[in-house]
Amino acid sequence: MANFVLQLPTSNLRSIPVYASSNGAPPGTASQNGGPVILELPLEKIRRPLMRTRANDPNKVQELMDSIRQIGLQVPIDVLEVDGVYYGFSGCHRYEAHQRLGLPTIRCKIRRGTKETLRHHLR
């Protein structure tokens, strides 16, 4: 899903949010088929269980920080929601870039899962 703002050069018009989705669901709502949802989540609400197992490339994090400052986050991170708790297993560089920029939230593609799904990711 892509989020962008269409700005027209006329002073009488204001910015109009425009959303595109392959499944027709507006951002922040579940798709009709129960697929992923795109939401902004507070960074502190996302648990990163594999964070201590690898180090991020500092050059890649810096490049992402520069890009996010200029054009915002282009690709949401994948998050698994299990019983109301959010777990992030990908997007490590994007997550760290948001942290280092002091941004309070990050755009996430959220999929619901079970405790069994979570155990599978932790293997």
Automatic annotation (TrEMBL):
EC number: 1.8.98.2
Catalytic reaction(s) noted: S-hydroxy-S-oxy-L-cysteinyl-[peroxiredoxin] + [protein]-dithiol + ATP = S-hydroxy-L-cysteinyl-[peroxiredoxin] + [protein]-disulfide + ADP + phosphate
Ion transport among keywords: no
Alphabetic keyword roster: Antioxidant, ATP-binding, Disulfide bond, Nucleotide-binding, Oxidoreductase
InterPro entries noted in UniProt: ParB/Sulfiredoxin_sf, ParB_N, Sulfiredoxin
Domain ParB-like N-terminal: 39-118
Presence of keyword Disulfide bond: yes
Enzyme class: oxidoreductase
One matching Pfam family: ParB_N
Domain of life (superkingdom): Eukaryota
Coiled coil: none
Membership in a protein family: Belongs to the sulfiredoxin family.
Protein name, UniProt field: sulfiredoxin
